[in-house]
Design a protein that fits this description.
Family: Belongs to the glycosyl hydrolase 10 (cellulase F) family.
Structural class: alpha/beta
Strand order of the largest sheet: 1-2-3-4-5-6-8-9
Number of domains: 3
CATH topology of the largest domain: TIM Barrel
Pfam families: CBM_2, fn3, Glyco_hydro_10
Bound molecules: ligand G3I
Number of helices: 15
Oligomer: single chain
GO biological process, one term: xylan catabolic process
CATH superfamily of the largest domain: Glycosidases
Organism: Planobispora longispora
Distance between the termini: 78 Å
InterPro entries: CBD2, CBM2/CBM3_carb-bd_dom_sf, CBM2_carb-bd_dom_sf, CBM2_CS, FN3_dom, FN3_sf, GH, GH10
């Protein structure tokens, strides 16, 4: 019986929201949400959701509800969550996600019925026949639970069944049951929920390669055998350092030509941390390309992002030193990637955004050295999103940042810098110049010289310090400034001339040790009194 017919018969149609809007009543406006634009294009835009922030954080709920018309449980519908012990089913997390979707007029993609990961060991230890029965029972109970609910639109029936070279993954499923478990899983799923769209899902299958071609061949074979497969999921866990996959649109199209739908199921685009404006821009381009590739193919039904805020992402836990893969930052601020997804769904860059960001605050300089300084300012606001800032000295750009702080490098020693900041948005609008600030770089230690500081000895109330200066090229003079906390006073020094200004102590060469040959070094020392306890404080060296 069709879902519509079943709903009419049960009277459920009047109370259950219809989640898929194919024909919009009104066109979306440029400033609309992601879901408004997606609905206007007949597509879904979705996010994976985690049960804990969904229950506990209103900012998380607000964005999940307002920006997305589709959600996927990040973990709550997996086998270890739904059937941790044989025939003991727990649906609290899955039901929580379904209720959220119903309340917010969203469709749910079920993830996932049969996978080699996050499947309890009791399943893995079964013999072949018992394993097949357990799979059938699991699918019947989990997919069957939501079969009468039109909010549940689709299922990942099998997940990640291929190795990278395109051979079948040598999982416990394959070892016990051979590749027949795949067709069986689809047949069991169709029996459990006749109306759900049934998908095969995998990663590294976005472009045309050996793995995606193996997937293509499998789908073609399953279709030819009459196996009920409706859809292919391209996970799309990308990384900017590995480049954008080749022929994504062509790949989507070839699956569509087999008569199945395609969806981007888990997109995130990670980067080596820390973020910067350049990496953000590359990431935004990748998001644009993926969304546009899907929009270009009629049978590509939509895009699910694997979470939306960098506050909750699997990436840093799995890839050390990588992150920032999503479209909102940890504080729920929209990133350039948000604008990219938005504008791609809206059909290009937004023509009517002529509003510039507000003027950034006056920058404050800190950690000023001979060749660098850190500037921090009050952030701008924008009607859409601030995408970055540029720092200028007159007309010369000294640096850029995605955030309201930048560390300038490559400055000239003993030079006054008067700088201002300009904010920009994705449409290219720029703010007025901030108020200027002036800082002066310190003298430094001589061209190519590196100071190495150490505490030689310490005692209650004082310590002896030493600096060894090693120079790459020859110099005839040198200077080093040590800046300590208030509690330190230098009472005696040797092999140097000392001048002090507040807590900054500048040591210049003595008459006899200014000349240091290339590769040579010279050392000076001092005694300091100090009112603290524990280890003597480390100075800022410049
Ligand atoms: O719930 C426990 C918690 O009780 C415990 O204290 C904590 C300690 O590590 O672990 C928690 O479980 C974690 C679970 O996520 C929920 O946060 C697991 O360790 C962790 O392994 C699990 O990771 C999930 C991963 O799948 C498992 O393989 C990620 O959140 C989830 O984003 C990720 O999603 C997969 C898709 O399902 C399939 N495609 C790839 C994608 C990314 O790996």
């Amino acid at each position: 019986m069709s879902r519509l017919r079943r709903a009419l018969l049960t009277g459920a149609l009047t109370v259950l929201p219809v989640a898929t809007v194919l024909l919009p009543a009104v066109p979306a406006h440029a400033s609309d949400t992601l879901r408004a634009h997606a609905e206007a294009r007949g597509k879904f835009i979705g996010t994976a959701v985690a049960t804990s922030p969904l229950a506990n954080e209103s900012a998380y709920r607000t964005i999940a509800a307002s920006e997305f018309n589709q959600i996927t449980a990040e973990n709550a519908m997996k086998w270890d969550a739904t059937e941790p012990s044989q025939n003991q089913f727990t649906f609290s997390g899955a039901d929580q996600i379904m209720a959220f979707a119903e309340a917010n007029d969203q469709q749910v993609h079920g993830h996932t019925l049969v996978w080699h990961s996050q499947t309890p060991s009791w399943v893995q230890n079964l013999g072949a026949d018992a394993m097949r029965s357990a799979m059938q029972n699991h699918i019947a109970r989990v997919a069957g639970r939501y079969a009468s609910n039109p909010v549940l639109k689709s299922w990942d029936v099998v997940n990640e069944v291929f190795e990278e070279n395109g051979s079948m993954r040598n999982s416990f499923w394959y070892q016990k049951l051979g590749d027949s478990y795949i067709a069986d899983a689809f047949r069991y799923a169709r029996a459990a929920d006749p109306d759900a769209e049934l998908c095969i899902n995998d990663y590294n299958v976005e472009g045309i390669n050996a793995k995606s071609t193996a997937m293509y061949n499998l789908v073609r074979t399953l279709k030819a055998q009459g196996v009920p497969i409706d859809c292919v999921g391209l996970q799309s866990h990308l990384a900017i350092q590995y480049g954008f996959p080749g022929q994504v649109q062509e790949n989507i199209q070839r699956f569509a030509d087999l008569g199945v739908n395609v969806r981007i199921t888990e997109i995130d685009i990670r980067m080596q941390m820390p973020r910067d404006a350049t990496k953000d821009a590359t990431q935004a381009t990748y998001y644009t390309n993926m969304v546009k590739a899907c929009l270009a193919v009629t049978r590509c039904t939509g895009i699910t992002i694997w979470g939306f805020t960098d506050k909750y992402s699997w990436v840093p836990d799995t890839f050390s030193g990588q992150g920032a893969a999503l479209i909102y930052d940890e504080n729920y601020g929209r990133k350039p990637a948000y604008t990219a997804v938005h504008d791609a769904l809206a059909g290009g860059t937004t023509p009517d955004d002529t509003t510039p960001p507000s003027t950034p605050g006056k920058p404050a300089a800190s950690a000023v050295t001979a060749t660098g300084a850190t500037l921090t300012w009050t952030a701008s606001t924008d009607n859409r999103a601030v995408t970055g800032y540029d720092v200028y000295r007159g007309a010369t750009k000294l640096g850029s940042s995605a955030t309201n702080s930048v560390t300038l490098t490559g400055l000239t020693p003993e030079t006054a810098y008067t700088v201002h900041v300009v904010a920009r948005d994705a449409a290219g609008n720029t703010s007025a110049n901030s108020e200027s600030t002036t800082f002066t770089t310190t003298a430094g230690s001589g061209t190519g010289c590196t100071p190495a500081y150490r505490v030689v000895n310490s005692w209650p109330g004082g310590f002896q310090g030493e600096v060894k200066i090693t120079c790459a090229g020859p110099v005839t003079s040198w200077r080093v400034t040590l800046t300590y906390p208030e509690s330190v006073r230098i009472t005696q020094n040797w092999s140097s001339t000392l001048s002090s200004l507040g807590t900054a102590f500048t040591f210049s060469n003595a008459a006899w040790n200014g000349s240091v040959p290339a590769g040579g070094s010279t050392t000076f020392g001092f005694i300091a009194s100090w009112t603290g306890t524990g280890a003597p404080p480390a100075p800022v060296i410049s």
